[in-house]
């Protein structure tokens, strides 16, 4: 398993102050999401939410169910239309861009999708080229998809149906599909959901690898705080439609914030140079 340091440029807390120090892998925030508001009918889901991510780093969105994490991802790539707020990539406001133009910036891996199980792996990965091909597959699309499969060590799966694969294998294919479009940002909604322990770690190791090797900004929603402590460069902790805190992982994940965000007491221990969250048992 890859060993890495958790680093960042400080922690933004509930009142917007910066705590901590350190040098991030980037010198500026490449992805800046700020003031995002979103409603489902009269229900306010996001209440001026935002976070920052950098190329070459993994930023994880944490928080209890209903905190607004998945909704925030969809507002970033335009699948949902925010009522307010801005999404900037390299200083450019992405709001004027079409969905197709946004898809060239933001690769997206949805949550636990069961769609397309009859497609072959190659057909699935080629579909990630749609923003470039305009719906007509060409030689370049096939070559790019084959290249991504080879990079992921998945060439032998090319003509197998998605429905024949395990959950962990399908998740790697869906990440490959997103990367086939050469995105600059990779957004993932619960990529470790429903996976066993081995595949959870394989997926997280893969995200760290592609962020470094392809210089991508990776932003993913997960629930496991221990995975975040092991793999995230930065985290944003959401609570009730707001960002409770964001910044360097070990500075954001504290017993006090865990209790506020999740309603449970927990201790954080250092075991063989790894930080582990242990919730208190109620019985």
Distance between the termini: 35 Å
Shape: globular
Low-confidence region ranges:
1-10, 15-27
Total DSSP helices: 10
Strand content: 25-35%
What does this structure look like?
This protein has helices at 69-77, 99-103, 121-126, 130-133, 139-151, 167-180, 197-213, 225-231, 249-252, 255-262, and strands spanning 11-12, 18-19, 31-40, 43-53, 57-62, 84-89, 92-93, 106-109, 185-189, 217-221, 234-239, 242-248, 266-271, 274-279. It is of the alpha/beta class and 283 residues long. The protein has a domain at 1-100 and 223-283: 3-Layer(aba) Sandwich (Rossmann fold). It has an eight-stranded mixed sheet with strand order 2-1-12-11-5-10-9-8, sandwiched between helices. Strands 4-3-6-7 form a four-stranded antiparallel sheet, covered by helices on one side. The chain has a two-stranded antiparallel sheet with strand order 13-14. Helix 5 packs across helix 6 (167-180) and helix 6 (167-180) runs parallel beside helix 7 (197-213).
């Amino acid at each position: 398993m890859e060993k890495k340091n958790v680093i960042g440029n400080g922690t933004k807390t509930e009142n917007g102050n910066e705590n901590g120090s350190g040098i991030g892998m980037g010198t500026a925030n490449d992805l800046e999401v700020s003031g995002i508001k979103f409603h489902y009918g009269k229900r306010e889901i996001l209440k001026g939410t935002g976070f920052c991510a950098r190329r070459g780093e993994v930023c994880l969105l944490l928080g209890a169910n209903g905190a607004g994490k998945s909704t925030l991802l969809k507002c970033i790539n335009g699948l949902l239309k925010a009522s307010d707020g801005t999404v900037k990539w390299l200083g450019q406001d992405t709001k004027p861009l079409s969905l197709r133009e946004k898809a060239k910036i933001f690769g997206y891996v949805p949550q636990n999708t069961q769609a397309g199980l009859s497609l072959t792996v190659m057909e699935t990965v080629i579909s990630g080229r749609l923003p470039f091909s305009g719906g007509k597959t060409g030689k370049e699309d096939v070559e790019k998809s084959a290249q991504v499969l080879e990079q992921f060590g998945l060439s032998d799966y090319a003509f197998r149906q998605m429905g024949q694969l395990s959950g962990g294998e399908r998740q790697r294919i869906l990440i490959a599909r997103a990367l086939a479009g050469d995105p600059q940002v990779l957004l993932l909604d619960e990529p470790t959901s429903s996976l066993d322990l081995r595949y959870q770690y394989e997926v997280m190791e893969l995200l760290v690898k592609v962020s470094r090797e392809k210089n991508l900004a990776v932003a993913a929603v997960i629930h496991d705080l221990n995975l975040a402590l092991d793999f995230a460069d930065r985290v944003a902790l959401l609570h009730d439609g707001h960002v409770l805190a964001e910044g360097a992982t070990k500075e954001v994940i504290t017993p006090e914030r865990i209790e506020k965000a999740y309603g449970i007491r927990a201790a954080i221990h250092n075991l063989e140079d790894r930080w582990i969250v242990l919730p208190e048992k109620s019985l």
